[in-house]
Amino acid sequence: MVVSALALGGILAAFSSDLSRVMVARTRAQTAADAAALGAAQQLLVPSGASAEAVARELAKANGGTLVACRCDAGSAEARVTVAVEVGLPLLAQVRTVRASARAVIAAPPGTEGLAPSFVAALSCLFDVVDGLWIVSGFRTRAEQAALHEQKPDLAAPPGSSNHEVGLAADLGYPSNDAERAAHALAPSCGLRFPVPYEPWHVEPIAA
Ligand SMILES: [Zn+2]
Question: Angle at the Cα of 107 (from 85 to 115), degrees rounded to 5?
Fold first, then answer.
């Protein structure tokens, strides 16, 4: 009786230690997934050469995990990652894989409603590197474009011909001339361009 109780106690102790290994691995996988998702989103926001997936893989590894999946295509406004951590279970003589997922979303600047997601990500990049920018005018319906064209026929394109109507143009507000210069200098590194020389506020994605 005493012997079997002791044996049972030993098994329970081993089992609970296996269980705590799983818990630890789960926490590690979540930490690694969080770090990988944040790093990938940062890379989407301000690209620096490496792909967002490569950054996520690095960060997952640095946190003791292995990147299983990264939905983090360039131009996307969010990163979703899944990370795996292997855990050895001595009692069961097994190696189990624990997975965790995380998602990081790039915060969109106010006024970007209706704009294309890849353009919003590019604008977020620019707003991140130049302080104080704002959006004066973003997406416009055809009717809004028509009304604006009637008001300012020299500046606003006729309805049906503006990239504002398809969510691929925005007019920026600048807090200073320095900010305007900085925005123009840094736009290409965020995938943006100012295609109209006499409209230094009108920005579009390079790929538009
Ligand atoms: Zn414009």
Answer: 120
Q: Is there a domain that residue 6 lies in?
A: yes
Å from CA of 4 to ligand 1 middle: 81
What is the whole-number distance in angstroms between the Cα of residue 73 and the centre of ligand 1? Answer: 27
CA 70 – CA 175 distance, rounded (Å): 37
Going from the Cα of 206 to the center of ligand 1, the distance in angstroms, rounded, reads 15
Q: Domain check: are 93 and 145 in the same one? A: no
Last residue of a domain, one of 105, 126, 149: 105
* pTM strictly above 0.85: no
Cα of 136 vs centre of ligand 1, distance in Å, is: 9
Q: Is the pLDDT of residue 37 over 90?
A: yes
| pLDDT at res. 107 | 80
Which of the four pLDDT bands, split at 50, 70 and 90, describes residue 19? confident
**CA separation for the pair 142, 162 (Å, rounded):** 9
> Hey, which residues does 101 pair with through a beta bridge?
82
